[in-house]
Specification:
Layout: H1 6-34, E1 54-59, E2 65-71, E3 79-83, H2 93-96, H3 98-107, E4 111-115, H4 135-147, E5 155-160, H5 162-173, E6 177-183, H6 189-201, H7 208-219, E7 239-245, H8 253-262, E8 266-271, H9 279-282, H10 284-298
Parallel strand pairs: 3-4, 3-5, 5-6, 6-7, 7-8
Antiparallel strand pairs: 1-2, 2-4
Length: about 300
Amino acid sequence: MPKPSKRLIKITVGISLFLGTGYLGISAFAAHVLSTPQKIFDRNQKAIFSQSPQDVRFSSADGIPIAAWFLPVKGSAQAVILVHGMHSSRTAELDGHFAELGAALQQQKLAVLMIDLRGHGQSGDARFTFGLAERQDVIAAVNWLKHQGFQAGKIGVLGVSMGAATAIGATADDADIGAVVADSGYAEVYPVMQRNWAKTSGLPDIFLPTTMMFGSWYTGYDLTSSKPVNEVKRIFPRSILIIHSVADPFTPVEQAQQLTHAAPSAEYWQTTAPTHAGSYAINPQAYMRRVTTFFHRHLQ
């Protein structure tokens, strides 16, 4: 067999380098875009509350400024922190009904602290890490509430989607959180990314591993290590309520079932909402009954 010419070898190497550089360049750009949160904030949402919420600012442990609304309840010893998901905010979560949920919880005698996670809403700029760094924002919110006089064990957290993973991580790390509600959360982020990659990024699956690699370089966290299923057991003996739709098109219900099986103290409520994080929208009254009963029972 004749040996390939030097010219052919050079052309082959050149094409390989060109394709490899393009592949890495596209992955690096995709990681930059996909790890940069959208800044969404609707000031008009304040009108939902009967009394305007208090504007609050505090810093996370690594210095990121966190913006929040505080909804006080005179004489209440129980407080709940509301945590939104990726590319959302305290005004945008639950398809714009998050403020409505906060107001309803306040009417049920639960003080409420609605935060914008780092990089989102009116909080300081940062890339998101699927709950790995964001949990520091929740723990900072817990510390702020304690400075207002709320006692350890009487502070709960409700998180939605990525906020659910954040809430689980924060509760596992901070024993002062008395109970947690995880709505539409994942057990492991990477399988969910694999499931939705082509649709959300517009790129073939071959770009996902290197995009996650660059994302990890950008953030300083191994993004594939976001696995609430490995942390949820550390919440015991405190209580957790897991809410998930059997028809969730983004995070399959099997993810919630994995979380439930891994958590000795878990309560599980399955709905039939047709959208991701849609359980509140299809039946706000039932959602409120479940959540308020849970928090009143366990924030003692």
